[in-house]
Sequence to fold (1187 residues):
Amino acid sequence: MPSLGADMTEGTLIEWLVGPGDRVRKGDIVAVVDTTKSAIEVECFESGVVDRLLVETGATVPVGTSLAVISPAGEEAAGLTPEAPEAVSRKQPASPPAAATTPPPPSASPEAGQSGGTVAATPLVRHQAEEAGLDLAAVHGTGPGGRVTRADVSREAAAERPPSTAVKEEPAGRGRVRATPLARRTAAETGIELAAVTGTGRDGAVRVADVRAAAAKRARTAPESVAGQREALLARPEAAGAGPHKAETGRDAATTVHDAAARLTAMRRTTADLMTRSKREIPHYYLSTTVDLGRAVAWLRERNRELPVPKRLVTTAVLLKATALAARHVPQLNGFWTPDGFGGEAAVHLGVAVSLRGGGLVAPAIRDAADLPLPEVMARLRDLVARARTGRLRASETASATITVTNLGDQGVEAVFGVIYPPQVALVGLGKVVERPWAVNGLLGVRPVVTATLSADHRASDGSTGARFLAALDSWAQKPEEL
Amino acid sequence: MSPDSTSNTTYREELREAMREALARDERVFLMGEDVGRYGGAFGVSLGLIDQFGPDRVRDTPLSESAFVGAGIGAAIAGMRPIVEIMTVNFSLLALDQILNNAATLLHMSGGQVAVPLVIRMTTGAGRRLAAQHSHSLEGWYAHIPGIRVLAPATLEDARYMLASALADPDPVLIFEHGSLYNLSGQLDTGCGPVDLDTAAIRRPGNDVSLITHGGSLGKTLQAADRLAEEGIDAEVIDLRTLRPLDDTTILGSVRRTHRAVVIDEGWRTAGLSAEVATRIAEQGFYDLDAPVERVCGAEVPTPYAAQLEEAALPQTDGIAAAARRTVG
Amino acid sequence: MTARAAKPQSAKARSGKDGKAARHASRSKKAATGKRQDPSRAHAGEPAPEPSEAAGHRHGLLRDMLLIRRFEERCVELYSGGKVRGFVHLCIGEEAVSVGVHRALTPQDAVVSTYREHGHALARGLPAEALFAEMLGRVTGCSRGRGGSMHLFDASHRFYGGHAIVAGGLPVATGLALADRMRGTDRLVCCLFGDGAMAEGEFHETANLAALWDLPLLFVCENNLYAMGTPLAREHANIDLAARAASYGMTAWVVDGMDVLAVERAAHKAVRAVRDGVGPVFLEMRTYRFRAHSMYDPDLYRDKAEVEHWKERDPIALLLGRVRAEDGFTDADEERLEEEVALQLDQALAAAEQGELEPVSDLLKFVSTPTGEVS
Fold:
């Protein structure tokens, strides 16, 4: 089938002007082909004898398909493209557009909401149904041929009001602050919460002057650790301990804050952006449990006794490994939230939040943490923290975590309610290991315990899933020797 | 004849002096267009040049824009350096085939073999009660076309010195002279030397808002800036000068300092040059903006004859100042 | 190849080991005999040679026409195979115009053509390889693959396109001629266009300007009776195209465009007149295209019988008949000529297919000359 135009992809053979045995010369018209534009004559580029026709009259074949075999004059046809006829005849039944005649494949899950393809309804009605949060497939159509009409949707929507309004209220509740791009950027840099700033621009828009005024006011009222506190609000709780900037008092406070903002590193901004996004997009829920570390601490003490200092293990390693195994046990918390919903990951790459001395935060991953022996987890942890603080992380380490742990126990914090790193869906906060009175089997004793807090994405999982996760974590922490 | 730096001169005279200089300096240069010779140019720009250089090099053409613009293209290909004058931008549409399909395209279509060092001058813009077929500002259309350079001299100096740089350009250059500028008078700064065609000019430095304009709107914009100054608003005025390629560096550099921008363009608002400038600011300067970009453009109507209507159809000082206030206030 | 050299040359070619070398030798010989490519005639002052009635000369014309026809037949194959895309317009049937007109031009003259310009380009001396490569989109194409079939350019041959806006090339041709006139050279510009272009305003503006200014311009109208699918009488109130051109005050003749010798004779005469300073001359070549307007044209607007009737005046067959009758040209001669042309095209196509594709990173090149690139 010759290509007779840039937009021609197939052609229908209307008429053969030659048949087997006919002698043809280069340039002869041998067939007529119907394209989408009109009937066009097909000429041949070889002289010889038509051996056989490969495409029947009426058949539609793609451009490039052999139409006939021409043998050089006087030669036998034998051995010429023997596979061609089969190839074409196989194509033949398939070439009428399959999609038009074959019924659509049955949907694997009719409830999945892919009803659009089968329900007859106008775009307006579809739009109306979407607004009302209705699945069109579930609406009884009273129009001609079962078509769903506007009245059908209205009726159904009225019946279903409670759930649909509940769905709609949430986004409406989160109002976006009207602010100029520059004001937004400056607010992020100086740690000013836009929602708390009164805008003086058109229609109440927050402008950069408003942000600077707010920053100046803050500098006057809270001369100590201004930036640090604000960053903590905006970013992550543990940042509060990461070395607050001291804003000089007196002089021109606004200028000082502005200068301080200019000194903030790109890292700080990245963290701010990421955490802002997390809090804006992820509906967090939090679950906490206190884990008895009595067995783990005793086991570690025993084990460490024989080891040189660099090889000794700390409780953190136990908790990290326990977290990794719990994540494998409850895969709904190990993976990423994408526009298509949650996608679980087979491997557990355990992110470890490390606050940097200059401010900011990274969370490099211990890859395949659930499969590593405990000493290896320990070694990796040491290595990651050291390299994170000297800025020598590999890109693969900073981007691959499937779930993250943040541990502020060494800074005296009891419980950490952390902010999830998007697109991850869970973060485990670990507090300080403290000695507490603890009842076991009705007997009160003093045991080392730690508070483990799960922050999880409610879009991806529910509280019961989170509870199973914490239970698994706890259970692994009781079996250090199996880690 | 050339005015010295202390005597008063006009935009028209400086355009003429620029051509006189070019004709005298380079044998390959010639001027061609409708009534450029004996008549002296529809707006008197080439008055007297024919006496000095003769009818061969100051060449009257029939009323056939396509033919004489195309002839300019052919002559340029053959090594001449033609200056083609089209009476007004509206008439240039009769030659649009030649400008777009040939002048702007031949270099590319020939794989780099056929360059077209042609200069086309034409009058643009309204304000002289010439109504809807002599008044439009279509330079933004031409600025859409890859392969040509588009200039809009708005000062005496640019009227005088842009032509030489345009003639030195190996590719087609279109020069848009706003009709209201021909009588612009003042003293020429002869010290500015040859001008480069890649940069916009900051005609008035300021800190609070960038007023970005070109051609016939420059004067009104400077007036608006003066008025704003009285109110304590320190406006910067940018004269684009070259509409293609646009000087992003100057535009964005200014907006990054002032955080506010008003684009003033006598052309229509929809899909026009002002839209392009505003979009570049949004694309490259979004996080520096402290107010939405404002535009002051020609009303979306063919230019009317009646004085009050024509005035209302064009950007005016009041409107420019008001837009600037909205970004600041 | 010219004809005086043809006989001994082809004998040499047959005995030589390498056909390419032989053809090369043949070309050098051609140059030496003072025909089109002779560098010793590099300035435009000399008139082109009178059309020779010698057999060799006719054989040369025959070969040039055959090259064009066989080249275009290859184009059909390449197009049908999907290797060449875009619009491709063939001049099969009109070869006599291409060959005859270009015999009257010197290398210093300029040519401005249309989108049906394969024949003009080949007759002008552009290598078939560069044309194939262009149509295959290769960087080795005569326009680096940026133009395609409709935009063949070669500044070194002063071949200025390849214009796909009907009549859009005419004003440019005027400008090239204006430059020649202003500089006092005796070069001329030959612009070729179809009967359809004469309905465009640009033709009339150009004719007026060229006649008004006495420009050294040779207008060659290839009147093939159809503007795409519209017959002459349906697009022109007065179908006497030469008369309309003459109304602008220029000399205009009608020529049998199927007879290459007639075309050549008329072209020489016209070129001499233009060089003598009479101003533009207009030649209406009555010709016919045997193929459809473009590759994707069902050709529904004309009778098959009409096409067959015109094929009786096939310019190649006409000349072939004459050289058989008058020059003792034999079947063997014809076969040899065909083989030669086929070999040349085989080699050109093979070389063209080896051409590189321009890297996409070069996309924005040639929009403006590097010193003034637009961002």
In short: The two ends of chain C are 48 Å apart (CA to CA). Residues 1-51 of chain C have pLDDT under 50 and may be disordered.
